[in-house]
Amino acid sequence: MQNIHQPVFEFVQAPKLVDWSQDAVVSWKKRWDQYVRIVRQRCTESGERMEIALRPVKACIDSELLEVLCLYELRKAVDDGTREELVTLIDVKLGSVKNNQVPDLDDFFRQVLKIDLHEDDVDARVLKYYRDFATLIKENGLSKILGVGDPADSGYSNRMKLRCTILIYILEPKMLQDDVRRYVKYECREAKCNDFMLFGIIKDKARAQHKYYVLAHERKVIEPLEQGKKRQTTATSWAPSPHIRNLQVHTKVDLTRSVTQEMPHHRRRAAGIARDPID
User: Fold this and answer.
1) Contact (Cβ atoms closer than 8 angstroms) between residue 166 and residue 146
2) Could you report how far apart the first and last alpha carbons of the chain are, in Å?
3) Which of 12, 80, 94, 118 could form a disulfide with 76 if both were Cys (CB 3.0 to 4.6 A apart)?
């Protein structure tokens, strides 16, 4: 009889929502989505039914918080509140700006959104820039203002235009920002309201600038080495050989002997030269 090995699964605990603040709900939603993915994968491999394996949303909310939400937000008793109503309530909370007060978006993203210039893989750098942008939108309830959403929505075009404006405004370094802004303004105006197209433009411009930066950096390293070798070669080429140095010494002695021999005897004595110089 053949033994059938049953899959062994790690126990996964459903996250608990204990607070209704924006940060707490965002954190819980992240952990809940991860929990759902793990359970779904387990059900695919084991054949379990998803609705049985997955812990109900109502059971994942703190009992006291659940009572208050049902009573004051849903205007229902706890037993009458449904899963769909609670999920909708959570989604509305996530899609709303904290305290219904929209911050200065330019100033907000200038402070919290940074492009990682230490990442030397340009594609990864730009992709992370977009990913961080999307994460900040979700975590701060800005989906209605800046979320991609459904292209069929009436406000889709305005959201896209605002997204592109902010993505260009926060872009670094300044040279890349100016290059992208100039290109979008004069050569590809469609990218002003299409962040998918803008994504490709930013990547292309960033790649080109990174290439020139690397070449310039390599040139700065090579040039001093080449100049040092050139100076060394020049100094070596002008150094006299031993034969030339000996010839210069003998020539100097011969010239001295010739001059002293032509001097009158009394001048030679006055100069302190008693006899002819010898080799």
Assistant:
1) yes
2) 114
3) 80
Domain endpoint, select from 37, 72, 94: 94
Beta bridge partners of 17: 61
Closest-CA residue to 210 (of 82, 74, 118, 108): 118
124 and 79 in one domain?
A: no
Please confirm whether the linkage preceding 264 is cis (ω < 30° from 0): no
Q: Which residue has the tokens 């990547």?
A: 203
**Tens-digit pLDDT profile for the chain (279 aa)?**
455 545 555 668 999 999 999 989 999 999 999 999 999 999 999 899 998 999 999 999 999 999 999 999 999 999 999 999 999 999 999 888 887 788 899 999 999 999 999 998 999 999 999 999 999 998 888 988 998 888 888 889 999 999 999 999 999 999 999 999 999 999 999 999 999 999 999 999 999 998 887 887 777 766 666 666 666 666 555 555 565 556 555 555 455 555 455 555 555 555 555 555 444
* 12, part of any domain: no
Residue 216 in domain: no
Question: Is 173 within a domain?
Answer: yes
Which residues is 188 bridged to in the sheet?
none
Nearest to 158 by CA among 181, 111, 184, 192: 192
For 121-194, where are the alpha helices, taking DSSP H only?
122-139, 143-146, 156-169, 174-186
Residue that the structure tokens 């387990």 belong to? 42
What is the span of the domain harbouring residue 53? 22-94
Q: In this structure, is residue 129 part of a structural domain? A: yes
Domains in the chain: how many in total?
Answer: 3
